[in-house]
Design the sequence.
């Protein structure tokens, strides 16, 4: 087969077509899907609308999608809908829960297709899939970055017993143009743009926390899905813009405990516009204080051996949040409750094998 | 001052000119120094000859250098010269000890000037100095790599209390063309070349070990010098090619304990030729087995609070090597002895402030 035929064949049967859902919080502009059409159209989209359910989100022709608004969430989860943030893009995690696929890719609607240094459009989804399908190396650092990439390998001094790596649970992609800065940094550096294309994928080592951004993120639902709770943010909550961070810290503690890997680096998307730093400061204000307590908490969090599933790990973490962070602010008691509710809701929509879900999502044992 | 004048002035007074020594093991070809002349000539060179002392190493005109052969090492260190490897480039660490400067850059004689993607010669030394003069971030991962580089910063979710970073003790540079592979990988992939220029510098997180290569390495002697012992390799020893690895593992445990940082990534050098994989296999054979025990040893090594200097840390580590690795092979008892001798020799040549060294390097208190 000539190489152009091969490329065409590959384009016709995109990677993991039937095993991956794309989860998008409210789409505020039609350009977004038009720009991504060549890459996203073969996949199923789950759109989770964060605002007024009466407003209609228009999805261009040709996309296969399902759309959930607040009324749908309330109907499907009943009282457990309380764990899903209201009027905040953190509600996207409902999409993770309602999906039936093995892999999730989530992206914000202000993220467009970036170009690599040669000027070629970057197929972000394809790179995420490559990241997820190849192992991670959380137990030892490889100085030539991802040893499973073409043209790379493990360097001298890398123990052979560790070269099988660990299953990859998370692929964290980056952003060209507008970097993901907090409000104080946005205010101080309003003109800073990220123009550095770093051609690397790497594993975040075991025991190391990182700031996980939800703008351009893929993960293996089977391996880590129940840890990807984006918390309580937005309307009625004292904090915003920490949804993905919270999920990242919980996820990293759990992947470390379960021997799974988290990768960061490629692919880049083009982050088109900076959000308003004044609005962001208001949302982040409490988080900026609280994270000084949260980081030591997560750095020292330890899970018992018996916690051998993501759900068990997450419930244990909820217990520790209540015990140790409740004194930081009452919000964390509420959050701990919601973490438990989230797992209940997850299990409701994703009953263990041998049970079936009813049409409205309530689990019923066979 | 016009900017071209400023650039000229900067070129005339290279960074840290009086504070950095370049340490090179035996130079086998004159091209090496000729190629590096624009970058190295302003600095002082310390050449440590690993082979027959009767052979003469020719250094091209115009370089400021001192050269030590085995006879010099024996004369200066006396019986303590036993800790310096014989007929192996591991002897370079004698140069770290005999230097009186704050910074060391060490490079192999088969490493040439690399080009960046724009085709410009890379000033490796300048990048190492930038790495060493800016802080590291060992306590939390920054997804946009080195936050202190131009055009970069800490991303959202990075705790503000950690943004001062930690002093950088080590800058580990990489290699284009021939990657630093072990003998088995060389044998399996004889044609693999590293052509990926990754435009990043990053901190290796606290608690994470890495394979430190001595080909293109800079460090702060004041902060970490006494840990940069390249062990017992080569003639009369059952192992080779683990000199830099050993130094890297010890160094990382100690920098982690003392709150210092280790960076890796830029700068690249051009590694011109692969060493013979059959010869390498013979040298590495034992190391490949032993490293499976060494990594868990270093991963679990813990230093007491009282170990508040590099020397104290290193002597404590020597004790643990003897206690825990002696049973792996008798070699490690000999190595533990040499680690102690190395520190004695270091203190002999680098007497504490308030003491003076005599001409032949023996310390004498004031």
Sequence:
């Amino acid at each position: 087969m000539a190489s152009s035929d091969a490329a065409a064949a590959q384009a016709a049967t995109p990677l993991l077509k039937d095993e991956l859902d794309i989860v998008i919080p409210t789409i505020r502009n039609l350009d977004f899907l038009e720009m991504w059409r060549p890459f996203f159209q073969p996949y199923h989209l789950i759109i989770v609308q964060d605002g007024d359910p009466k407003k209609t989100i228009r999805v261009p022709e040709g996309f296969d999608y399902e759309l959930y608004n607040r009324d749908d969430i309330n109907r499907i989860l009943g009282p457990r809908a309380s764990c899903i943030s209201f009027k905040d893009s953190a509600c996207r995690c409902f999409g993770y829960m309602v999906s039936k696929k093995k892999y999730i890719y989530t992206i914000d609607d202000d993220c467009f297709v970036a170009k690599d240094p040669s000027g070629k459009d970057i197929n972000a989804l394809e790179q995420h899939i490559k990241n997820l399908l190849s192992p991670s190396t959380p137990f030892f650092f490889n100085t030539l970055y991802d040893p499973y990439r073409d043209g790379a390998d493990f360097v001298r001094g890398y123990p052979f017993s560790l070269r099988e790596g660990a299953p990859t649970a998370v692929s964290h992609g980056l952003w060209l143009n507008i970097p993901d800065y907090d409000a104080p940094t946005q205010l101080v550096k309003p003109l800073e743009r990220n123009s550095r294309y770093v051609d690397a994928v790497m594993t975040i080592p075991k025991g190391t926390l990182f700031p996980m951004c939800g703008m351009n993120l893929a993960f293996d639902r089977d391996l880590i899905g129940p840890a990807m709770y984006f918390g309580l943010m937005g309307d009625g909550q004292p904090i915003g813009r920490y949804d993905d961070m919270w999920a990242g810290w919980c996820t990293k503690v759990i992947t470390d405990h379960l021997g799974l890997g988290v990768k960061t680096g490629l692919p880049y998307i083009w982050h088109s516009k900076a959000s308003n730093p004044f609005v962001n400061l208001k949302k982040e204000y409490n988080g900026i204080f609280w994270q000084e307590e949260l980081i030591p908490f997560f750095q020292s969090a330890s899970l018992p051996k018996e916690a051998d599933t993501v759900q068990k790990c997450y419930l244990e973490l909820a217990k520790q949040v209540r015990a140790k962070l409740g004194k930081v602010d009452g919000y964390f008691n509420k959050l701990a409750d919601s973490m438990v509710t989230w797992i209940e809701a997850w299990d409701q929509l994703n009953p263990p094998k041998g049970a079936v879900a009813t049409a409205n999502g309530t689990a019923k044992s066979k």
Remarks:
- The CA atoms of residues 239 and 286 of chain B lie 6 Å apart.
- The two ends of chain B are 47 Å apart (CA to CA).
